[in-house]
């Protein structure tokens, strides 16, 4: 039995407060450039926005917050920027993990770990272990994550574990091997920074997510900007393939 209802196999409950929010935090470089600062200052400032958003999610009763921190394509950036981002990740982990734990937040990292520095890996592992039983909010950081990588690794692991299912496996079988098997599918997807694309984020899991795009740059994405996104979500009618009349009982 699957842990959560699939948006294509069942009809999940559409709660007024999104249970799961997934975010592409974009626009850090442009935020810094506008201020005549190096791009990396935007990343540094972006960490503050993360902190505020985590607090706000707890206040609202959001159960899962998933943040895209580094894509599998971001290795294509200048080596100095990549190095800075890895350093920032390490620093933020070290500094915040105790606070996260005190606030009953579970931290999970998804993505291909094979390219990370062993010291960073150790830090990630320790943080996940420390917070694994916390349930107030599950904060997932997608780092060296790619949606296609996720589907590929799931298919490979499933077929390896169950060769007899190679030609017959179901959606449910596969989703158990996806990186986010421990969470319901995102209800709300937010992308800041003006771009309207998915950039290889959670391809499978976003099948029926409500999409919200804003021009606000990530470091400027404050409480008010976040509430605009949540209020936009509240007004959506989540039909999952049905008609509006079916939903209102007038069918
Ligand atoms: C998003 O901000 C953060 C990461 C991809 C790590 P960007 O660095 O992409 O900022 P822009 O898009 O160049 O402004
Ligand atoms: C997407 O942002 C990845 C993260 C926010 C980590 P990018 O700024 O790298 O996206 P593209 O490549 O411009 O679409
Ligand atoms: Mg960008």
Automatic annotation (TrEMBL):
GO terms for biological process: polyprenol biosynthetic process. Transmembrane segments: none annotated. It comes from the Bacteria. Substrate binds at residues 27-31, 39, 43, 71-73, 75, 77, 191, 197-199. One of its GO terms (cellular component) is cytosol. The keyword Transferase applies. One of its GO terms (molecular function) is magnesium ion binding. Its cofactor is Mg(2+). Its EC number is 2.5.1.-. The active site is at residues 26, 74. PROSITE patterns: UPP_SYNTHASE. Keywords: Magnesium, Metal-binding, Transferase. Binds 2 magnesium ions per subunit. Mg(2+) binds at residues 26, 210. It is an enzyme of class 2 (transferase). InterPro entries: UPP_synth-like, UPP_synth-like_CS, UPP_synth-like_sf. Belongs to the UPP synthase family. Homodimer. Catalyzes the condensation of isopentenyl diphosphate (IPP) with allylic pyrophosphates generating different type of terpenoids. This is Isoprenyl transferase. It comes from Novimethylophilus kurashikiensis. The lineage of its organism: Bacteria, Pseudomonadati, Pseudomonadota, Betaproteobacteria, Nitrosomonadales.
């Amino acid at each position: 039995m699957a842990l959560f209802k699939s948006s294509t196999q069942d009809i999940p409950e559409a709660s007024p407060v999104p249970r799961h929010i997934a975010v592409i935090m974009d626009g850090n470089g442009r935020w810094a450039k506008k201020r005549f600062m190096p791009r990396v200052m935007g990343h540094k400032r972006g960490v503050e926005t993360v902190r505020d958003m985590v607090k706000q999610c707890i206040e609202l009763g959001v159960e899962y917050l998933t943040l895209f921190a580094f894509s599998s394509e971001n290795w294509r950036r200048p080596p100095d920027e990549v190095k800075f981002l890895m350093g920032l990740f390490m620093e933020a982990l070290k500094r915040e993990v105790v606070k996260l734990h005190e606030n009953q937040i579970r931290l999970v990292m998804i993505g291909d770990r094979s390219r990370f520095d062993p010291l960073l890996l150790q830090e990630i592992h320790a943080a996940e272990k420390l917070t694994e039983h916390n349930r107030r909010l599950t904060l997932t950081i997608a780092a060296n994550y790619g949606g296609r990588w996720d589907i590929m690794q799931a298919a490979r692991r499933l077929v390896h574990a169950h060769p007899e299912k190679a030609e017959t496996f179901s959606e449910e079988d596969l989703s158990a091997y996806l990186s986010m098997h421990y969470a319901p599918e995102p209800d709300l997807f937010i992308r800041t920074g003006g771009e309207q694309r998915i950039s290889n984020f959670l391809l499978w899991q976003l099948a029926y997510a409500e999409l919200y795009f804003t021009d606000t740059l990530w470091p400027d994405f404050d409480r008010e900007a976040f509430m605009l996104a949540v209020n936009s979500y509240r007004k959506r009618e989540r039909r999952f393939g049905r008609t509006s009349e079916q939903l209102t009982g007038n069918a």
